[in-house]
Amino acid sequence: MPHDMYPPSPPPLTPDVLLRGYMAGIFPMAEQRDDPEVFWVDPKRRGILPLDAVHVSRSLKRAMRKSTGRLALDGDFEGVLTGCADRDETWINAAIHDAYLELHDMGYAHSFELWEGDVLVGGVYGVAIGGAFFGESMFSRAPDASKIALVCLAAHLKSCGYVLFDIQFVTEHLQRLGAVEITRDDYRSRLKDALSVAASVHRQPLPETPSAFLPGANHNP
User: How many structural domains is the chain composed of?
Assistant: First the structure.
């Protein structure tokens, strides 16, 4: 098995249960949208995106430079959550949807968004605890929107003092951006260190334009 799965969680999926799960190195999923049960996943090999080694291809740099989109933090968390679940197969069921909304209201779950005018065209959401950001899912309704949101999020996290960007699993798409796999023991060691770091997604102002995150652009370090 590529990862261990624990039986559906006996207690309700409350914000407190979610936070304790993340701090222990596990995260919840459902088999499908209509399945009321949730199980916990503990990958034997964990995907992370090293914040000092994000790779932005020439084509993606071009897309960021030409983008007329506007970046936003927590502008429409539920919209991003819904966008991530808007696919034929999703692990975001009603229990996960509701629990993350509560976690957002408490200030732990955040969405990082790309807007074209008043239209949300892409975004990423995840959970922030200490110096760790646990990326959950992303979506795109325009070319390169999710890629742009992800690389800008990584740059913003680095500027805000985060030291661990957990992406759970490495896909070919994420690998091209610099994602790597590490062992469970290595992940837990990094997680322990990250949880002791004081970071905040609000430590630095978020530039509105993706091009502000390109090398040489004038933005907060």
Answer: 1
Residue 156, amino acid: H
Residue 102 lies in a domain: no
Provide the whole-model pTM.
0.92
In this model, does residue 4 exceed pLDDT 70?
Answer: no
139 within 8 A of 146, measured Cβ to Cβ: yes
Report pLDDT digits (tens) over 11-27: 689 999 999 999 999 99
Does a structural domain hold residue 100? no
What pLDDT does residue 3 have?
58
- Which CATH number fits the domain that encloses residue 187? 3.40.630.70
Residue 134 sits in which domain range? 44-89+108-213
Task: Please tell me the predicted confidence (pLDDT) of residue 12.
Answer: 82
